[in-house]
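It would be a great kindness if you could assist me with a short task in structural biology. A protein sequence and the structure tokens that stand for its backbone fold form the material at issue. I should value your view on which stretches of the chain appear to form regular backbone elements. The record follows directly beneath this note.
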Amino acid sequence: MSMHHDTRRSTYSVKVACAVLLAAAFLAGLTACSRNSSPKSNGEALYLYNWTYYTPDSILLAFTEETGIQVIVDNFSSNEEMFAKLRAGGGRVGYDIVFPSADYTSIMIKLDMLEKLDHEKLPNVKHATKLVHEKATYDPDFLYSVPYFMGAAGVAVNTTLVPSGYERNWDIFADKRFARRMTMLDDMREVMGDALIHLGYSNNTTDLLQLAEAQSYIIENWKPNLVKFDAESFGKSFGSGEFWAVHSYPENVYEEFPESRWHEIDFFLPPEGGSMYIDNMVILKDAPHKDAAHAFIDFIYRPEIYAQFLDEFHLPPTVHSSAVEYMETTPLYSADDLANYSIIEDLGESLDLYNDLWHDIRYMD
């Protein structure tokens, strides 16, 4: 999203002026505006905390039309940002559904931050694929989480701006012809994981020598050519032509181009593999609207509704077994392209090793 996946994505853009500021509604400063003026609204609300560019307006509006429940969305750009906000609020942040990636879903389960799901209220979860059940080792029976999307970040190249003959693997970021015209995600596990896999190691390794080698590789080969590590604004800069090649989730870049220009983008998943994510829908332990949250998750998993999500971003049906029958678009990549990709796992106390190495990658000259 880890589809974590950071970046990954605005949900429910404001299309009319906000009528009401929800200033003191919740302790964490939920100042999101109502973005749905449906006449069927019954005054109830559901609060989502999701990645940027990740929930089609059409789905949110359809849910409100059917249930009368307004959906109000705040966005985050990284798992770390999301987790810090939730922890700072002590669980009392007012959100109902949050969309963490696999590793942070695991952490939140262990910290007892999540509500155990009532599967009697989630009949459509039966459509989850066998593959995502196998990959979701942190919660294989979906006791606390329901997969929203499983995918990977790749590389987007503006073919109208770059010289030809570039490598279609992670070492495109070592190409000096694109120096100061490229970005990589400001995401520790994505960047370090991709470097580790590029070097032939596991993206979840805790071997100090392997981690040090990956750190050196990034600093010496990729970082000198980057404008910055960016998880928020790179999509718009790619769309404007400022950046030529970016480490990205597909929705971040395609959303910035009219579909008539999509042929100008070369988006690829490096064949050597990389870090794969499962972004999940979870209900917080202190969620104020648990019944509405269950209803929304089940609504998302209706085949015809989930197909709308996939069509919006031209994504493959990696977590849903029945949506393909309703899809009207061709995905930008296929589930087969994920063959060499590995889920980002919870590292426990070893996460500090990555944090220290990432700090030096990010801030050392």
About this structure: The first strand starts at residue 45 and ends at 51. Residues 208-222 form the longest helix (15 residues). The CA atoms of residues 27 and 229 lie 31 Å apart. The domain at 45-151+277-336 is CATH 3.40.190.10 (D-Maltodextrin-Binding Protein; domain 2).
